[in-house]
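Reply to dn_fold:

You asked what the input looked like. This is it:
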Amino acid sequence: MISPTDPAARYTASANSVAGYAYSDNYLIDLKHAVIMDVEATTTIRQAEVGAAKTMLDRTAEQFDVTPSRLVADGGYGSAEIVAWLVDERGIEPHVKLIDKAERTDGTFSRSDFAFDPERNVYVCPDGKELKKYHRAFAKPRDGVTKAGTMIYFARKQDCEACALKPKCCPNGPVRTIGRSIYEAARDKARAIAKTEAYAVSCRERKKVEMLFAHLKRILRLDRLRLRGPSGAKDEFLLAATAQNLRKLAKLAPFQGPVFAT
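and this is what came back:
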């Protein structure tokens, strides 16, 4: 679906709404004061919005010398790549919900039921057997990383065949396999943060972000764009964010009474 008037816009729809051509408005907000720090216009796809987060963080650090201690975002920013970028390259705590499909719902063991030993680089199953990337040595060393950035750990066939827990572990296969992302260390840190009280506070503070988008549509009436193309969307989003910041500044500035002539 391509718009005849604005080919760069993407055909999309949110829940319980009519589909249409749109751009995504991305904000970087200071949660303490609910001030918009940066704005980026993108197409309405998750990969572009995640890239916008990196762009805004880098631009804010360069222009204002401001680096946040934590990033609060929805589950769309919970991919392994962005979490690893935040933890390893920027030192920012990811207060986001991970995109994790490792947990099973069919009654069999999930990956969390297997203990990972980082020193030996193996998983240990509930029966005490080891899952390794390779069970034999190769003349030419292999890293075992797939194109998707995942390492596959698997058990020995003889261990699984003789195991009494096989019906709850791998009932439809000869051996149990587990995939581990190369960014799993950063994901483990995000999981640990999700169990803290600070994460619960971040979830509540996300209302400040959603409120600004609600004001954008209901108070500023920016429910449709007047300019075409990505540059037009960027200009309108930037002007709207400036207006929102000025509204907040007007509330914080001290009120001066009228000056009467004498």
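Residues 244 and 250 are 10 Å apart (CA to CA).
Hope that clears it up.
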